[in-house]
Amino acid sequence: MITFPNAKINLGLNVVEKRPDGYHNLETVFYPINLQDALEVNRLENTGEPYRLRVSGSTLDGSPEDNLVVKAYTLLSDAYSLPPVDIHLFKHIPTGAGLGGGSSDCAFMIKTLNEKFRLGMSIEEMEKHAARLGADCAFFIQNQPVFATGTGNVFERVSLSLADYTLVLVKPDISVSTREAYGGIRPRRPETSLKEIIRRPVEEWRDCMKNDFEESVFARHPEIAAIKDKLYDIGATYASMTGSGSAVYGLFRNRVENVSEQFAGCFCRQREMI
Ligand SMILES: C[C@](O)(CO)[C@H](O)COP(=O)(O)OP(=O)(O)OC[C@H]1O[C@@H](n2ccc(N)nc2=O)[C@H](O)[C@@H]1O
Ligand SMILES: Nc1ncnc2c1ncn2[C@@H]1O[C@H](COP(=O)(O)OP(=O)(O)OP(=O)(O)O)[C@@H](O)[C@H]1O
């Protein structure tokens, strides 16, 4: 069975407070985008191993046990009797980008195992398992635009469509550690809730919709700030870093000419919004 785990962007991100467990409560809107990995899962016959993982496309650090698709398999193996599986992951979504690529792979692995081996899990059960493996994972179970609170695991559907927009996504060759990015933030509640801002026209977002990670990440990496400025220079209606970076996106009313040349040296993609 093959699925195509997609990336997300954050529309606004307010880090609201630090929790006693060291994590942070936030407010953000998660929005799925058209940039995908591919994940194939088949039964593994006659090898005696519980799983085999092959990764192609871009390379990933760490051993197979560190991969979130294997972590998802191992977690579900504790609760259900699963046969050995042969996993092939084609990585296309850049990591350390704030695009949630690993989290999406993880959630799609849970959905695949549920369907393929008829585990009978409800959406809520799958979200609960996913949330144990990473703050961003649960969103990808339903994969619909949501206003998220808690650590990013409490969802409220938002009726928002950006389907009229073109997305330009730019990821410089810089990886930002999510843990470090949270360390650089002084949490505070925003004056105007993102839930209200998201209802305003996209043209107004530039003046009021913020990603709290930008201040400290831009101070450390001015190259990332320069990408955002350039996206506005070439006509973006709204531009922002996504998650804890380092990818930056622009929403445009029209397609942009020669976009790869404008951001030479960066991973750069242009896509219609979903
Ligand atoms: C920045 C976001 O992408 C926004 O969507 C997410 O909050 C990050 O989610 P993620 O990459 O799935 O994060 P995890 O792998 O669960 O956590 C990495 C590290 O980030 C910090 N972390 C993460 C999420 C959160 N709500 N508060 C935190 O303080 C913790 O130090 C944690 O050890
Ligand atoms: N299947 C996977 N794909 C990508 N990274 C993975 C995967 N499994 C484990 N990881 C590890 O997780 C780390 C973060 O990957 P991921 O792509 O989710 O982060 P990100 O782009 O910062 O997204 P976000 O912070 O929004 O979740 C990487 O350093 C990588 O080593």
UniProtKB/TrEMBL annotation:
Enzyme Commission number(s) of this protein: 2.7.1.148
Domain GHMP kinase C-terminal: 194-263
Keyword Protein biosynthesis: no
GO molecular function (one): 4-(cytidine 5'-diphospho)-2-C-methyl-D-erythritol kinase activity
Pathway(s) this gene product operates in, as recorded in its UniProt entry: Isoprenoid biosynthesis; isopentenyl diphosphate biosynthesis via DXP pathway; isopentenyl diphosphate from 1-deoxy-D-xylulose 5-phosphate: step 3/6
UniProt-listed Pfam families: GHMP_kinases_C, GHMP_kinases_N
Chain positions recorded as ATP binding sites: 94-104
Key words of the record: ATP-binding, Isoprene biosynthesis, Kinase, Nucleotide-binding, Transferase
Superkingdom assignment: Bacteria
Catalysis: reaction(s): 4-CDP-2-C-methyl-D-erythritol + ATP = 4-CDP-2-C-methyl-D-erythritol 2-phosphate + ADP + H(+)
A GO biological process held by the record: terpenoid biosynthetic process
Active site: 8, 136
Residue stretches making up the GHMP kinase N-terminal domain: 67-141
EC supergroup of this enzyme: transferase
Keyword Transferase: yes
Annotated family: Belongs to the GHMP kinase family. IspE subfamily.
Function comment: Catalyzes the phosphorylation of the position 2 hydroxy group of 4-diphosphocytidyl-2C-methyl-D-erythritol.
Name of the protein described by the UniProt record: 4-diphosphocytidyl-2-C-methyl-D-erythritol kinase
